[in-house]
Write a structure and sequence with these properties.
Blueprint: E1 4-8, H1 12-24, E2 28-32, H2 35-45, E3 49-53, H3 61-69, E4 76-80, H4 86-94, E5 98-101, H5 106-120, E6 129-132, E7 135-138, E8 143-144, H6 152-162, E9 168-170, H7 171-179, H8 187-201, E10 211-214, E11 218-221
Parallel strand pairs: 1-2, 1-3, 3-4, 4-5
Antiparallel strand pairs: 6-7, 7-8, 9-11, 10-11
Helix pairs in contact: 2-3, 3-4, 6-7, 6-8
């Protein structure tokens, strides 16, 4: 059964290009040009993935995300033509799974779509084993090959990232889930702890391959 994608954008040329290219790759595609239509189509089409432009004519993208999140956990990739990161952070905090900045390369968007749809496929069995560079990590007993030792906070941060491979996790989400709801602005904590994780696990901490920073946004684990 083919994956169903809902594309929400008010730019006809983008909608047309995405419809043609996604259908050519075997996806089933529906489209909407504003937020109200998107919510209506989603309720009847039940997409497996939503590609959502933040700049819609009738409502903010974050409102559409909130409307969807009221009844579905469908993955959402937002498209943003806005240069600042505040809108993207708001969308991610509202429940989006990833973002792509306009103008975007089609190959990049298709790669993000593949990554997100892979993550939501039911796994055969969730494995506690993860590999980062030269190290084999066992999340079940919190051990790492090579006798690398992590503090409890480092383990929490690492687990949160590796349990969501490929997904951008916002600074606010990590601070909330690792340190607690009162730590919403202490981004220096994240920088320090990510630097420590990279020194312990990355072959070249200055050029990390697995524990990646999205400047001003958050962090991403790349397997």
């Amino acid at each position: 059964m083919s994956t169903k994608i809902l594309v929400v954008d008010d730019e006809p040329q983008i909608v047309r290009a995405l419809r043609i290219n996604l259908k050519a790759r075997g996806y089933e595609v529906e489209t909407a040009r504003d937020g109200a239509s998107a919510l209506h189509v989603a309720a009847h089409f039940h997409p497996d993935l939503v590609v959502l432009d933040l700049g819609l004519p009738d409502m903010e993208g974050a409102e559409v995300i909130a409307g969807l999140r009221g009844w579905t956990t469908v993955p959402i990739i937002v498209l943003s033509g806005r240069a600042g990161s505040a809108d993207k952070v708001e969308a991610l905090d509202a429940g989006a799974d990833d973002y792509v900045t306009k103008p975007f390369g089609l190959d990049e968007l298709l790669a993000r779509i593949r990554a997100v749809t892979r993550r939501v496929q039911p796994p055969e069995a969730e494995s506690p084993y993860v590999k980062i560079g030269l190290f084999d990590i066992n999340l079940a007993d919190r051990s790492i090959s090579g006798d690398v030792k992590l503090t409890p906070t480092e383990w929490q941060l690492l687990e949160h990232l590796v349990r969501h491979p490929g997904k951008l996790i916002t600074q606010r989400e990590l601070l909330h889930d690792v340190w607690g709801p009162q730590y919403q602005t202490e981004t220096n904590y994240l920088r320090q702890y990510m630097a420590r994780l990279r020194r312990k696990l990355e072959e070249d901490p200055a050029r990390p391959r697995h524990l990646l920073t999205e400047p001003g946004m958050g962090y991403r684990f790349r397997p």
